[in-house]
C-alpha cells in the first residue's frame, strides 16, 4: 500500500483511485485515549467504534440529532448526548431499530485488564495467566496492593518512564509490587502467576533496555488504539469481505503506524484495502462513530464503577463483541453481547490474546 500525503490516505486500489466492487465502507472514531497512561488516565475504558452506512443517510441522522438537541455548538460530540436532558435522544440513537442498529459496532478495552494482559504476555508468554491473576488475585488482595501493582506494571511497560523523583527503577518497582501481592497469598492460581512474574527479572530488564535504545516505538504495548483498529477491521471483513476504513484524524495515526495496522491486518488475513484519515466534521459517518464511541466509553465506565444504568447498558450490548479486552466479569455480564450469557469465560480468554 502507498501513502498519499496530501489526502492522508493509503490505498491498494491502484493509482487511479478506482473503487473496488463489494468493498465494505466503515467510518471509525475512538474515545478514552490516554496513550500509554492506562492506570492514572482520565477514563478506565477505551472504546473504538465503526459505523457502516451511506454518507447521505448518516448526514440525515446527524441533522435529526441536531434538530432534537438544538445546541448552538458548531460540532456535536458525545457529551451532548450524555446530558440528562438529552437522554431520549441517546436512547433513540442506541435503540433496537434505531439509526445504528445493525450498522455499527464498538470494541471495548478495560484499561486495567489490558495492563495485566500485556505484562503477562511480555514476561510469561501466557495470556491465560492474565485472566487468572485479574480474576482471582484482584479481589483477594488488599485495597492498596492491587493499585500499586497496576501502577508498577504500567510504568514497567511504558515506553518512556515517568522518572518521578525518588521512584525505584521500573523493573525494581514492578518486582517489589509483585512481591507485595504474593505476600497477600491470593490463591486461586494467582499465587503461581505471581511467582512466575517474580522470576522474570531478566526478561523485564531486557525489555527496558530495548525500549531505551529505540528512538521511536511504532506500536507501544500499552496503547489500545492500533490493535482496536485491527479488531474493527476484522469484524467488518468477516468472511473475507474487503473493507475500507475512514478514521477521524489523530496524532497517534502516523504513516508508520498506519503501515503497522496494514501489516497486522495482512498477517491475520483481513482484507483491509484502504485506510483514510478525515476530519470528523467532514464526514457524518465519523460523527456517528464519535457519538457511539463516546457514549459507549461512559456507559461502560459507569458499569465498571458499579453504578451503571441498566437501560443504557442493555442498549449498548447490542453493539459490543466477544473480542473485547475485558476482565471484570460482573460488568461484562451486563455489557457483553446477549448471545454470550453463560459463556463469559470463553469470551474473556479469547479477548486476552486478541489485542496482541
Q: What is the tally of beta strands?
A: 7
User: How far is the N terminus from the C terminus?
Assistant: 23 Å
pLDDT averaged residue by residue: 88
**Basic shape:** globular
Binned strand content: 5-15%
Poorly predicted spans: 1-8, 11-19, 340-356
* Helix coverage percent: 40-55%
> What is the chain-wise order of helices and strands?
EEEEHHHEHHHHHHHEHEHHHH
Structural class: alpha/beta
Note the total helix count.
15
Which sequence of strands runs across the widest sheet? 1-2-7-6-3-4-5
How large is the radius of gyration? 21 Å
The main β sheet shows up as: 7 strands, mixed
Summarize the structure.
By secondary structure, the chain is an alpha/beta fold. It has helices spanning 55-69, 78-81, 87-94, 111-124, 127-137, 145-157, 170-183, 190-198, 201-213, 225-236, 255-267, 284-305, 310-316, 329-335, 344-354; strands at 2-4, 9-11, 24-31, 45-51, 104-110, 243-248, 272-278. A hairpin with a 4-residue loop joins strand 1 and strand 2.
Task: Describe the structure in your own words.
With 356 residues, the chain is an alpha/beta fold. It is 49% helix and 12% strand. α11 links the parallel β6 (243-248) and β7.
Give the secondary structure arrangement, pairings included.
Blueprint: E1 2-4, E2 9-11, E3 24-31, E4 45-51, H1 55-69, H2 78-81, H3 87-94, E5 104-110, H4 111-124, H5 127-137, H6 145-157, H7 170-183, H8 190-198, H9 201-213, H10 225-236, E6 243-248, H11 255-267, E7 272-278, H12 284-305, H13 310-316, H14 329-335, H15 344-354
Parallel strand pairs: 3-6, 6-7
Antiparallel strand pairs: 1-2, 2-7, 3-4, 4-5
Helix pairs in contact: 1-12, 4-5, 4-6, 5-8, 5-15, 6-7, 7-8, 10-11
Amino acid at each position: 500500500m502507498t501513502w498519499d500525503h496530501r489526502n492522508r490516505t493509503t490505498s491498494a486500489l491502484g493509482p487511479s483511485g478506482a473503487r473496488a466492487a463489494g468493498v465494505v465502507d466503515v467510518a471509525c472514531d475512538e474515545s478514552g485515549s490516554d496513550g500509554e497512561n492506562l492506570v492514572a488516565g482520565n477514563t478506565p475504558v477505551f472504546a473504538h467504534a465503526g459505523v457502516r452506512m451511506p454518507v447521505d443517510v448518516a448526514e440525515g441522522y446527524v441533522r435529526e440529532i441536531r434538530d432534537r438537541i438544538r445546541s448552538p455548538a458548531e460540532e456535536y460530540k458525545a457529551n451532548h448526548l450524555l446530558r440528562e436532558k438529552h437522554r431520549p435522544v441517546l436512547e433513540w440513537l442506541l435503540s433496537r431499530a434505531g439509526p445504528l442498529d445493525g450498522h455499527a459496532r464498538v470494541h471495548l478495552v478495560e484499561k486495567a485488564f489490558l495492563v495485566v494482559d500485556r505484562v503477562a504476555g511480555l514476561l510469561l508468554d501466557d495470556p491465560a495467566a492474565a485472566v487468572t491473576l485479574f480474576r482471582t488475585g484482584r479481589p483477594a488482595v488488599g485495597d492498596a496492593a492491587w493499585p500499586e501493582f497496576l501502577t508498577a506494571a504500567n510504568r514497567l511497560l511504558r515506553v518512556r518512564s515517568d522518572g518521578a523523583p525518588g521512584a525505584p527503577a521500573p523493573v525494581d518497582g514492578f518486582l517489589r509490587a509483585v512481591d507485595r501481592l504474593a505476600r497477600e497469598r491470593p490463591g486461586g492460581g494467582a499465587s503461581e502467576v505471581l511467582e512466575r512474574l517474580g522470576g522474570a527479572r531478566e526478561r523485564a530488564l531486557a525489555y527496558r533496555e530495548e525500549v531505551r535504545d529505540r528512538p521511536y516505538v511504532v506500536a507501544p504495548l500499552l496503547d489500545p488504539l492500533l490493535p482496536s483498529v485491527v479488531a474493527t477491521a476484522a469484524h467488518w471483513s468477516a468472511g473475507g469481505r474487503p473493507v475500507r476504513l475512514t478514521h477521524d484524524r489523530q496524532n497517534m495515526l502516523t504513516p508508520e503506524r498506519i503501515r503497522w495496522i496494514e501489516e497486522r491486518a495482512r498477517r491475520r488475513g483481513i482484507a483491509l484495502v484502504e485506510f483514510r484519515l478525515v476530519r470528523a466534521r467532514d464526514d457524518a459517518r465519523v460523527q456517528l462513530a464519535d457519538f457511539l464511541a463516546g457514549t459507549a466509553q461512559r456507559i461502560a465506565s459507569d458499569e465498571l464503577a458499579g453504578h451503571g444504568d441498566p437501560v443504557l447498558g442493555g442498549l449498548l450490548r447490542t453493539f459490543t463483541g466477544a473480542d473485547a479486552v475485558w476482565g471484570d466479569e460482573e460488568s461484562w455480564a451486563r455489557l457483553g453481547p446477549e448471545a454470550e450469557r453463560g459463556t463469559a469465560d470463553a469470551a474473556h480468554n479469547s479477548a486476552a490474546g486478541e489485542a496482541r
